Amino acid sequence: MNSPVGPSEIRVLIRPIEQAGPEQEFIPAQLFKKILDAFLAALIAADRELHAKSTASEFFVSHLARGSYEFGLLEKQRAHGPGGGSAIELFRRCAGGVYRSDYQVLLRYRRLTRAFHRIVKALDPAYVVLVQYHDTELPMDGFFCRQVDRVGANGAAPSQTDVWFAGTAIASLEGRLEAIDYRGPVWKGWLTLADGETQLECVFNKANGEDALNPFGNKYVSVSGQAIYTGDSQIPERIEVMKIELLPRGSGPVDIRGSLEPASHAGGEHGDDHIH
Q1: Which residue has the higher pLDDT, 262 or 6?
Q2: 136 and 207: one domain?
Q3: 48 and 88: one domain?
Q4: Taking 70 as the threshold, does the pLDDT of residue 82 lie above it?
Q5: Which of the listed residues 29, 197, 218, 226 has the most CB atoms within 10 Å of its CB?
Q6: Could you say which of 92, 117, 149 is where a domain stops?
Q7: Domain boundaries, position 133
Q8: pLDDT computed for residue 189 by the predictor
């Protein structure tokens, strides 16, 4: 049984999207090394954003699971109190901010910006990477890569031809939910909106179990949750589903409340906007 992730630790899980059989496939050693090196370099970059060389944190391998493509990195801080700060907490804050379209949070840290681009280059689309913290987790998948790419490697702000809302909002949308993909540590599905052409990526909470989601596959539904708007469109690019319910076929037009607001970066600790 895995030990819990500590507050000064990150745990990185790497899983192949396709499984040939019940046995877990081996992961290429070169890929594992690239991902490990990229995450370690990002933590070192975050540490250099915070600390002088004399007070730099030290990083240790805290977890290495045999045959399960997992590793953990632990930070031991030398600097405490005023002027200290955790590299892992800065990494977490910036990764979560960029994931939720708060691009400005990463623009303040040039070293970390370049390190995030290194992580993106190390990822392989055939594998899902999930970063676990002591109280939450974050997928580093194709969506995350696109979010990082919106921030230039040299710290350039994302360019926008149309002024759409960028950030997160609690929203409800209706459409046909295509088959749910239970492979890997992140469960996903595609919601085809009322126009029959636009598709929205949905992420589901695994804690609810497959039985709670199976009735909604290939059905017309309403989903509610935290929608992530990237500033490139009037509709969100991803929604983290908190509630789902069946609807009669063709019950009404798609609800895109909050998506027509001007481009902005939401305030608050997590950059969340709440649309009522």
Answers
A1: 6
A2: no
A3: yes
A4: no
A5: 226
A6: 149
A7: 9-149
A8: 94
Does a structural domain hold residue 161? no
| 96-137 pLDDT per residue, tens | 999 999 988 888 999 999 999 999 999 999 998 999 999 999
Q: Within this chain, do residues 125 and 175 fall inside the same structural domain, yes or no? A: no
Rounded CA gap, 271 and 250, in Å?
33
Residue 154 lies in a domain: no
The C-alpha atoms of residue 96 and residue 103 are separated, in whole angstroms, by: 10
Q: What tokens does 178 get?
A: 């295509």
- pLDDT for 275 equals 38
* Domain match, 29 and 130 both: yes
What phi and psi, each to the nearest 5 degrees, are found at residue 122?
Answer: -80, -20
Residue 62 has pLDDT above 90, yes or no: yes
**What is the tally of structural domains in the chain?**
2
